[in-house]
Amino acid sequence: MDAIKKRSDCPISCSLDVWGDRWSLLIIRDLMFKKQCTYGDFLKSEEKIATNILASRLQTLEENGVIDKLEHPDSKAKVLYKLTQKGIDLLPIMIEINLWANKYFDLPDDRKAVLKEVKKDKEKFIRDWMKELKKQ
Amino acid sequence: MDAIKKRSDCPISCSLDVWGDRWSLLIIRDLMFKKQCTYGDFLKSEEKIATNILASRLQTLEENGVIDKLEHPDSKAKVLYKLTQKGIDLLPIMIEINLWANKYFDLPDDRKAVLKEVKKDKEKFIRDWMKELKKQ
DNA sequence: AAATTTGCTTGCAATTTGCAAGTACAAATG
DNA sequence: CATTTGTACTTGCAAATTGCAAGCAAATTT
Fold first, then answer.
1. B12 touches chain A (CB under 8 A)
2. Which of B2, B6, B13 to mutate to test the interface with A (most CBs of A within 10 A)?
3. In terms of Cα–Cα distance, which of A33, A6, A3 is closest to A94?
4. Least enclosed by CB within 10 Å: which of A10, A73, A111, B100?
5. pLDDT tens, chain A, 136 aa long
6. What phi and psi, each to the nearest 5 degrees, are found at residue A110?
7. For residues A14 and A7, what is the distance between their CA atoms, to the nearest angstrom?
8. Chain B contacts of A65, Cβ < 8 Å?
């Protein structure tokens, strides 16, 4: 549906064409924290994404190979969304966004605590978290 | 004009509220490569941003302290835009986006070459480039 | 069998985008 | 010094996107 409409060959531009809107990275964030989410999980997030926007973003992210849909083990009515390797590889970007935000916004204490950990050994943190995300 | 309409206290969400649209990071990219740009320079970029969108984004980025306007030494008709420290601090995010894009898109050769350099010593690359950006 | 949950889709008003044209001021040109 | 050109925007408007509310079909629970 959302055809591939590359604006240029610039890496930043290409990346933005995939996830450069106000919502996609929040979906990806949810999947990084929670590993797997249902449609309803995304709707429950703090930012209150509209259901039609969510459906549209999930489709685009899937079409671009960033996320995957899979059957829920408990119920055919539910759908599980998870990150692909391409999605998992966005983790370093996520971390850097967090670190930037930590410098320029006043974040909730629990977030600040995590970022303190990140700073101790960024490489290791990313490596460990990626391993976690790949587990399933 | 664009009032501060935070969707949540999440660092990703706060960051997206500042530069999370299809154009802002391209403006920031231009400033990272070229250090200083005029209004016309931005318009010349490959992605062909519309002039009204450009004006609106420059204003929002300035209001959020990411970029600064300054007088052009040669002419009062020209305006120079540059990154603030807050803008310069987006460099690690930019680098990670580049590295991700390098893994999943086929980039122009010159870009690939730079990223090969980056990978040799990411920390140093960022440090050196930041120093360059701070020079003026 | 009826009610509820789940993952969407549909309709529509409001906002945002994108294109084209216009404007005001500065600077260069003749 | 009058006119053209350059620079940084603004304005108008159609088209696309967003966001809210309601609807819907299949699966599950009661």
1. yes
2. B13
3. A33
4. A73
5. 444 578 999 999 999 999 999 999 999 999 999 999 999 999 999 999 999 999 999 999 999 999 999 999 999 999 999 999 999 999 999 999 999 999 999 999 999 999 999 999 999 999 999 999 999 7
6. -65, -35
7. 7
8. 104
| Cβ(B13)–Cβ(A23) below 8 Å | no
Give B71's DSSP letter: E
- Kindly state the tokens that stand for B78: 């020209």
Q: Please, which residues have CB within 8 angstroms of residue A130's CB and are 6 or more apart in sequence? A: A88, A91
- Nucleotide in closest CA–C1' contact with B40: D7
- C-alpha A95/C-alpha B93 separation (Å) is 9
Element (H, E) at B101: helix B91-104
* Cα torsion B128, B129, B134, B135: sign: positive
